[in-house]
Every structure is written in C-alpha cells, then in structure tokens.
Design brief:
single chain; 342 residues; Metallo-beta-lactamase, Chain A; seven-stranded mixed beta sheet; 11 helices; 42% helix; binds zinc ion
C-alpha cells in the first residue's frame, strides 16, 4: 500500500476517534485532558526506503551504497553507505544510516543473506547519517551492543543527537519521521580488537580528523579498513567539526599501521588510493591557506590560491559538493592555519 495513503488513513482514523470521544461519550470535563493531542497521534512515519542490493567489497565486508552526496527528500536521507561484516556467527554493521527506515532496509537486505543475528553495530562518528539508523537495529536486535568512541556516545546523548535529528528531518522534508534517537552504548578505544565468529575487527582512533571522535574499523584478515568520513570518494563535506592537520596525521597513521589496505569510505566507493587522493585535495586547500596566512594575505586571496592550485583543480569537476563547500572548507582551513602559524 502507498505510504501517503496509509498516513491519510491514520489521520482519518484519529479524527474519527476524536469525534467519537468528544461527542459520542458523555463528554465530561474530566475526559478532555485525557485526550492525546491530535498532533502527537498524527505524528507519522516517513515512507520505507526502497530495497538495495549489498555489494561485496572484500571477503567479509558488504556495502549498501547510498544514493547521492547530500540528504534530500528524493534520497530520503540515504546519502551515507551502510556497511556490514558477515561472520559465521552473525553480522556486524558499520554505520547504520540516517533513519529508522534506512536501518530497516539494511535489515531486510541482511535477512536475504543470512538468518543469523546482527551481533553488533559500530558508529564511526556523531554525524547523524552514521547513527540515526541505530533505532531499527536496537528494535530488532536489542542484545546487540552499539560501539563508538566514548566522546561520541556523550556527544550524541547531550548535544549532537537532537541537533542531527532535527537537521535531517529538515533536509529530507520529514522523510525520516518516526526515527528515535538511539545513542551508541558501548565505548571502544584505539587498538581494541573484537572478535565476531572468528573475524577480528580492530579499532583505530588518532584524535580529531573529520570530527574529534572518529573511529576507523579494520577488518583485519581482509586487509580492509572502513574509514568512516575521515576520507571520502568524490565528495567534499564541511570540516567544521574537523581538523586538516589532524586528518593528515590520521592518513599517515593508517598508512603505517594498516599498510596496503583497501580503504572503504562511508561516502562513495572503496579505493586503494583513497587516502592519497584525499591528502592531495585537502592538502592543496590547507597548504594554500597556510601560505596565505604566513604572507599576510586575507581569506579571499587564500580562496583564489586554493581554486588556482592544480592539486585542487583536478578534483573540482568530479567532487560532489565542491562548488557549494569550497569557500566554507577553505575558511576553516584558513582559521586552522592562523592558529597553527602563530
Ligand atoms: Zn557522513
């Protein structure tokens, strides 16, 4: 059945119920305060997300590819990949999507592959496209721990949770309605190894990069690392929670500690050269911002230098969000360069 229709039927049923309660019953004064407000009852649920087929990217890792670079009504907020590790004992999810609807779609996809349970979920950081789908997994697999950096858990609980829910509701024009904030509940540390059915996952964290709480999940036997949003494929996002120098530090650490890995981003496709490419683009932005700061040039001059740099230019046409975000990203690089330079 069409979802709009279902929603309309629900509203109609509530209206009928309200009328019956108001006029059918002996409408004593005591009855009225007990009525649930119509707005709360009618608060609906966004439509389900169309089924997607997982793509295998390494021996154990599968990816449900998102549709588009940024959240909107059309993609229903499905703009960050949901990935999962298949093990002999069950499934481990890495990033749960932007909504309960996306989480439910991922569970349907998993159910077509195995009857085994979801054993755990990892959230790579506190941006809503990576954890709002927890709701679906907690409902279906209440025993499964949801792992994240300890400060990611605190942040979602105290500040970023409600902010991201509201922001994604707005961006998708209510398509994610019905999604409840379900924070991660199990902290993990850098270097921690967890074994699921004989498959070892190793957690990496090297300080602030895309956010202060990024974790990267290595599927050790696969020589594969899910890098979250620390690096992206053909996409540039804002860096307002991040650090350029911190990001380069993370790339160096990953290349040292998980050398020769396949890098799997939450936005776009896996690529063995992902860190090299991201370092060139983000490095081109940061180096020019730093040069501008050191020679006393203003932000506009820095932006012109960034746009003229061949290391940046070569990615411009092929990078979703480039024109929209390059000014903002450069301004963040400029501020960071000012802090580092003095
Ligand atoms: Zn993201």
């Amino acid at each position: 059945m069409n979802n709009d229709l279902r929603q309309q039927e629900l509203v109609d049923a509530i209206r009928r119920d309200l009328m019956r309660r108001l006029f059918g019953l002996a409408a004593g004064a005591a009855v009225l305060p007990a009525l649930t407000p119509l707005s709360a009852l009618a608060a609906g649920r966004g439509p389900s997300v169309p089924d997607q087929k997982p793509v295998q990217v390494s021996e154990h890792l599968y990816v449900l590819y998102a549709r588009g670079g940024f959240p909107n009504k059309e993609n229903q907020g499905f703009f960050a990949n949901v990935s999962f590790v298949m093990t002999p004992k069950g499934v481990v999810v890495i990033d749960s999507g932007t909504s309960v609807q996306i989480g439910e779609m991922a569970i349907r996809a998993i159910r077509k592959m195995t009857d085994k349970p979801v054993l755990a979920v990892f959230n790579t950081h506190f941006h809503g496209d990576h954890w709002l789908g927890n709701d679906a997994f907690k409902a279906a697999f209440p025993e499964a721990p949801i792992y994240a950096h300890p400060n990611c858990i605190t942040s979602i609980k105290t500040a970023t949770g409600p902010q991201w829910l509201e922001q994604m509701m707005g961006a998708t024009e209510g398509m994610i309605e019905g999604t409840r904030i379900t924070p991660p509940d199990h902290p993990v540390q850098h270097g921690q190894e967890l074994n699921f059915g004989g498959v070892t996952l190793r957690v990496h964290h090297y300080g602030q990069a895309h956010t202060p709480v990024d974790i990267m999940v290595e599927i050790v036997g696969d020589k594969t690392v899910h890098v979250g949003d620390v690096a992206m494929d053909k996409r540039i996002a804002n860096m307002e929670d991040g650090s350029f120098t911190g990001t380069f530090k993370v790339y160096d650490a990953l290349e040292k500690n998980a050398a020769g890995s396949l890098w799997v981003p939450a936005h776009g496709k896996p690529d063995r050269n992902l860190l090299v490419k991201n370092r060139e683009l983000l490095g081109g932005i940061y180096e020019n911002a730093l040069k501008a700061v050191q020679s006393g040039k203003d932000f506009e001059a820095a932006k012109a230098m960034v746009l003229a740099d061949p290391h940046v230019k070569k990615y411009a046409n092929d990078t979703v969000g480039f024109n929209e975000n390059i000014g903002k990203v450069t301004s963040i690089a400029y501020v960071e360069a000012e802090q580092k330079a003095f």
